[in-house]
Amino acid sequence: MRIGIIDICKQIEDPRMDRKKVHKMETIIYIAAVLCGTQSWNEIEEFGNAKFVFF
Q1: How far is CA 23 from CA 6, 31, 35, 42, 43, in A?
Q2: Could you give the 3-state DSSP secondary structure of residue 27?
Q3: Residue 55 has what pLDDT?
Q4: Contact 41, 55 (CB under 8 A)
Q5: Each residue of 12-54: pLDDT tens digit?
Q6: Is the N end or the C end of the chain the one with fewer CB atoms within 10 Å?
Q7: DSSP of 35-55, one letter per residue?
C-alpha cells in the first residue's frame, strides 16, 4: 500500500489553537515545501525541521 504525502503530513501534530485554524496543517506543510522547491521526502523533512518554530 502506498501512502500519499498528505497522509504523511496528517501525522504531524498541529500545535496551533483550534480557534486560529483556518487551513489544515498538512495542507500548509505540503504547499510550503513544494513552493520552496523540495524534490524528495528527505528535503521535505529537512524543510519541516528547519521551519519548525515558524509552523
Answers
A1: 13, 11, 17, 24, 23
A2: helix
A3: 63
A4: no
A5: 788 888 887 888 877 887 787 788 788 877 887 787 788 778 7
A6: N
A7: HTT--SHHHHHHHHHHTTTT-
Alpha-carbon distance of 55 to 49, in angstroms, equals 10
The reported pLDDT for the residue numbered 1 is 63
* Residue carrying C-alpha cell 524543510: 47
Q: Which of 31, 35, 33 is nearest to 45 (CA)?
A: 33
Q: Which amino acid type is present at position 55?
A: F
- Cα 26 to Cα 32, 41: the distances in Å are 10, 14
In angstroms, how far is the first alpha carbon of the chain from the final one? Answer: 29
Helix, strand, coil % (nearest 5) of the chain?
55, 0, 45
pTM check: above 0.90: no
